Amino acid sequence: MIRALPISLLLLLAACDAQQAVPPEANGTNVAEVEPATPEVPSLEGSWQVTMIDGAEARPLGMTATIGAGQASLVTGCFRRAWTYSQKGNIVDFTASPGGSSNCGGQTPGAQAETAYAALDDVNMAIFSQQGKRADMSGNGGNLTLERR
Length: 149
Hints:
Elements: H1 4-20, E1 25-26, E2 29-30, E3 46-53, E4 56-57, E5 64-68, E6 71-76, E7 79-88, E8 91-96, H2 111-121, E9 123-129, E10 134-139, E11 142-148
Antiparallel strand pairs: 1-2, 3-4, 3-5, 3-11, 5-6, 6-7, 7-8, 9-10, 10-11
């Protein structure tokens, strides 16, 4: 009998805890059925200034990005590289579009520009901050930071 009392108390406490695990109802709706709101992800469409390339400041380069209607381009001076792109939330995909690209008569882009082009080729994620005015883009080829113009 002495052993039965502690075991009975443990079973009683376990039963009380199990009842508290059921979520309370709010306005007749089970709380477990309510889905959290998904925040709106901004669109990449628009005009951007490339401010960082792989963590290095890009301002001296003066590179701009224009994104819209499934097309994207990076321009610095007379160099232009083009891509097609798609965006689903924070997931992005860029595919080089050589027909939309151009070089300055016989010149080649600098190392920083080439690094930016390579980064955009493999970007697969865009994380937005500053109410969508900044996009940190990353992938296997490197990282780009864009700020809306």
